[in-house]
Amino acid sequence: MRSLAMLKPVKSILQSVALLLLGNGLLNTLLTLRGTDEGFSSAVLGIIMSGYFVGFICGTWVSGRLIRRIGHIRTFGFCASICASVALLHLIFVNPWVWLPLRVVYGLSFITLITVIESWLNSQAASHERGRIFAVYMVVNLGALATAQQLLRLSSTQGFLLFVVIAILISWALLPITLTRRVQPTIPERPKSSLKALLGFAPLAVASAALSGLAMGAFWSMTPVYATQLGFDIGGVGLVMSVAIIGGALLQIPIGRFSDKHDRPRVMTWVVLLAALIAAGMPFAPSHEVLLGLYFIWGGLAFSLYPLAVAQLIDQLHPDEIVSGSADMLVMHGAGCAVAPIAAGSLMTAVGSQGLPIYIACVFTLLGLYAIYRRRHVTALITHTAHFEPMVQSSAGALEMIFDDTQRDLFDDPSFYEEDERERLAGIFKPSNS
């Protein structure tokens, strides 16, 4: 009963986000499959799919301004209408060079929708309940993305039905949030970038955000092509995507909690190297069933990397740096996602379908080697141990929901901040004895 009471203020928001992500998750996979059916090469598909992440990054800069200008509900209605119409425009204009700007516009509008949702969730949840609200939000998020892949079974990718379903779902997402009588929150100014400082004292966290984006962007964009070329039918493609997402949903928490109690950089190193090893083993999977098992484990490891990077960053931040720091991490992750489809698609065009797991294995191996180098040569300045929270790429406002009053009180303890602020921001590290 208490949990239900906790969710009552945000029920309409969670309903809207479930419908929105059902439509978005279906569209992202459908476009890749439809493009493959239309004869688009892997390289061209990679360029098209990168447009979404380019729009996503641009949207992180303009969404706040739009919300402050016309309010949350009007912004949500405005951007949801754009997303629904853009989904249908993909069906009307089946041309790769038309799809590219459509993906940019869609990505920009979608991150604005997510910013509206997460800032509203943050304002409606009591401070001591934000952590639990965020956990429920992530369950809805990942559950909707996994379920969306199964909607591919409704019809052929060559028809119009799936595009219409997407437009309907996104349009329906307007209903719960526009019917709410709750007061719209205010959104703060975007924090000033601190990326230069972050690179000075938390380069491993920043590198992990960027390189995990290089891998996950390839997963979201090119896995449907990879599965199709391996002989999976449309239902099988949805199953591959769902299995990886479910693995990410189920394994993130145990991996993250383990990292809370042990040396987090060491945990990150093992996670990324294991993910690289599993990706490298995918070309040798003897059957589709074995490949699905590998994707489940890989998803659990790969989906953990971005939240591990965020937790590693927060380990080294003062409370007043968290919002700007998390915003910069989001941009770095998005930049990696934007480059990934082009790089992975080009490699797949050159060497075949197995270019995707080879590409992912190489990216994760590079990150693993860098993590080993950092651990052996540099000791990071850890101010406190943050609590891991599962997450996917979203808006910077999501980080606000992670911290409850207890955590904030811990951050206020001056004993955590023994290192002089000016030295820390200058990027001075203590040499490691190892």
From TrEMBL:
Gene Ontology MF term list: transmembrane transporter activity
Keyword list, A-Z: Membrane, Transmembrane, Transmembrane helix
InterPro entries reported in the protein's UniProt record: MFS, MFS_dom, MFS_trans_sf, MFS_YcaD-like
Domain Major facilitator superfamily (MFS) profile, first and last residues per copy: 201-434
Membrane spanning stretches: 43-64, 76-98, 104-121, 133-152, 158-177, 198-222, 234-255, 267-285, 291-309, 330-350, 356-373
Tagged with keyword Transit peptide: no
PANTHER family tied to this protein: MFS TRANSPORTER, TRANSPORTER MFS SUPERFAMILY
Name of this chain's protein: MFS transporter
Lineage of origin: Bacteria, Pseudomonadati, Pseudomonadota, Gammaproteobacteria, Oceanospirillales
